[in-house]
What does this fold into?
Amino acid sequence: MFENYLMPESASTIAPRVDALIWVLTGMSAFFFFAVVAALAFLAIKYRKGSDANRDLAHPDNDALEITWTVLPTILAVVMFVVSTAIFLQYRQIPEGASEIYVTGKQWMWKLQHPSGKREINSLHVPVGVPIKLTMTSEDVLHSFFVPAFRVKQDVLPGRYTTLWFEATKPGTYHLFCTEYCGTDHSRMIGSVTVLEQADYQRWLESDDSVMASNLTPGEALYAKHGCVTCHDGGDAARGPMLAGKYGTEETLNSGETIIIDDEYIRESIYNPQAKLVAGYAPLMPVFKNLINEEELFLLIEHIKSMEDTEASN
Amino acid sequence: MAHASDSLVAHHFEDIDQQNESAVLGMWLFLAQEILFFGGLFAAYFVYRVKYPDAWAAASSELDIYLGGFNTVVLLVSSFTMAVSVNAAQTGKQQRLMMGMLVTLALGLTFVVVKFFEYKAKWDHGMIPGSGFVYHSTTGDYFAGVNPDQIQLFFCLYFVMTGMHALHMIIGAGLLLWLLALGYNGHFGPHRFMKVELFGFYWHFVDIVWVFLFPMLYLIDRSWMLQG
Amino acid sequence: MHTIAEAQRSAVFPEVNYLSARHTVASWLFTVDHKRIAMLYLVTISIMFALGGSFAALIRLELLTPAGDLLDSDTYNKVFTLHGVIMIFFFLIPSVPATIGNFLIPLMIGCKDLAFPRINLLSYYLYLLGATFAIIVLVRGGVDTGWTFYTPYSSTYAQTEVFYATMAAFAAGFSSILTGLNFIVTIHKMRAPGMSWFRMPLFVWAHYATSLIQILGTPVVAITLVLLATERIWGVGIFNPNIGGDPVLFQHLFWFYSHPAVYVMILPGMGVISEVITCFSRKRIFGYTFVAFSSLAIAVIGFLVWGHHMYVSGQSVFAGIVFSFITFLVAVPSAIKVFNWTATLYKGEITFEAPMIYAFGFMGLFLVGGLTGILLGSMGADVHFHDTYFVVAHFHYVMVGGMVMAFMCGLHFWWPKMTGRMYNETLGQISGILVFVGFNLTFMPQFLVGYLGMPRRYHVYSEEWQMLNVMSTLGATILGLGYILPAIYFPWSLFKGAPAGDNPWDAKGLEWETTSPPPTFNFDEENMPVVTEEAYAYVIERNTLGAR
It folds into this structure.
């Protein structure tokens, strides 16, 4: 009901909740502000010098009053904390089956990559009504991915993955900003998010066939190019663990620890293979740090995820 | 204002006790500040040690435990000689005060010289962080497979932590020289020893920092030495 | 009771005072008198304020239009960085403590000087050294990292004078540490007979709390800047993600100091307000102990909230929740102060001299600053607001609306004591009102544009935000005018102002029991003060009421 006053257009499932929170907090702040200012003005006028207000028995201390205005704001603060934190937790609960898009920030552009391998720069197309998970990293400095209409923001860090999710509710084109200062053209590291109806989105995905020209996906092509297959195919001569079907499963390491195979682990294993070796394997894998950039890494991860365990399914 | 004419008491203090208590409290606050100063480094150290335990153990084993151990003994002895100096100052034993401070200075300089040779050894092995950094494991297979980048990270912290400590040692040596010069000119007496006492606080503090640095940097994982 | 006019008619300028003690330049540059050092600070930070203010003017001019037409990107980035670095490290942090605090703490507790006069002078020269580094940065082409120096941009990517900028902040930091150390020792050991802890003016309490933060927080940022500087020189370092370093660790270490530093920038201001409200209400402060302990509570709890700058930085959700909870709690002691100031007016006898106008302005603006802080402390709302103009407006309400108002308030209140001369009261009142109005016009639109999502540190922005930015720039013009007025009438009063007399405001407190300006050792040395009553023992003489 307050749309387009105070807050920017609201176009995600979480936006109305965040707006409600912001409105409540703003209203409460305004209430306290006007209450105190009214009290100040009233007292300043009533007890101005020369007024004939009654000044008898003005005690400078009143412990009951002090405790009241200490305890009540504390209770209020705790309530606000609980409500605010509950909404923040929703920001962090990525829905099952959200479709994944990879984001790379670099001075001064956003590079986005769809699961199909389709890529965009400084613009992102997403379907309406589908939860989208962004997995993000940076090739250089800190950036921050901010879409005001979705009320989402997350810093993007070099050497690490951060995630955010949203589900768009309204077709349209919205601002995309970098909100972590990143150098000269920080204020030009902007773009747009276009929300399409699902059918339009499918059409958009298929519209550009240059990416799909080969029958290999870009991830598959990289997987072949760097020869990953020679060690990781699960055959008898394989010197590394088989990858197919392993994503999301648990694995025991040399050190006896167990870990879940996730994006971060795959990234580390490609850039720094010796860091966490799967139990039973020798430290043989070369370092691919200077051979594979962050964007290609996303393609590889996407490919590894999609690899099915053929033996098991047979 | 009976005390105001007493030349030992600065004009803005009421008496010698007020002046001395202020000086001692001021020194404690200064040391509190110093603890937080090194505290930032210790915090960074622990973050990475928890994150990269294997690399930390491997890199730690590259440090020269004998030189480090020797320096630890040197500093502990210098703390003792400094304590003797402070006691001598309080009891007005000028000759012992001068001797104590001279020995303390000699031990402090010994520490710095030994530290210099430790640094030089690391330089010769190419273990100075930067584009030319090389990590040759001298500890055999035991740490095979650690990431050399993380070793480099350890050495970044090693040099900043020990460098900051060495800087404090050098400043301490300078202050000692100044105190020796004052003592030579007969500045100290049974009622005039606060400068020595306050410097003692500082010197012990710098020693204590080293007492933490030595095990944190040199002794992370030395069990392999016993196994061999 | 005598009125201000009466007090002044009989006032003569004392022949013996700290200003007239000696006249050589060296007697100023090598002085160990806390009052002279305070004046040296006052002159220097005024110059730095003017410098930082001129950068602010450039920022507002550039933002008149959504295109980057006045300044190119690199220049704009340097301008906002220098504005931040200069205003925070060289104006806000030393503002009240190093000038008014330095001048008044020995006077207020009844001693002849700070405990370590030479360390006080050293702290001034360290500040000057830092300021020199800042000027070197400026001359060599500026620095463009933002005042927060976030890695890895600052350590690896920036091509500007980051090293000198870190040295500037480093030197200023140690100046601040030494000031705090001096204050704590002085307050512990140098109080006049009868000046018990709970008879101390709240101004002194506030500085005690501030000094704790200065001593325990500043060294952490100092070593962090050393790490950053070595990383720049060396080419690698512990924040470098290429060798497994964590850039977020820098943020933790940075905010461990820089959030408490926010309280260094506001607590002394709160101390000023407590003094002024009581004087012009002619009443003892309401809830003395609560106001005193709330300062300590802010200092202590303030050390545990730094992570609220980092909700979306990639720190863990759990850490965020803990930081958010403590952040909500730290709001309470500030609220207690505001409630007590308000209650102090009750049954008072209120007059509206320039300091009181500034004090009212402070309360209005600080309230907005504090209450909007709650929206930023809330994790759910902060995701949207983080790094937008909402944050910019919020901290300007606290820093400028709070601390600069309090600084001006204190300067007007104690100017007669510091210089022995009265400034032009009418101009003082006008300037107070101009600053208040201009400030709101400048920063209220920034809240609105922040709600809409305009990111900070942008000089090229979306056209729909132009209207609010134009309003903000117009407001800044009025604000600038409000600051220029005192820059004229204060110096003017040094030559033409009427002698102030010992106690022009008929105020309570030891500082008003000596001459204006005070002698070199503050009091009549044969008759040092002895305290026999509580602070703020104002009495309203009832028989004079109603008659006028």
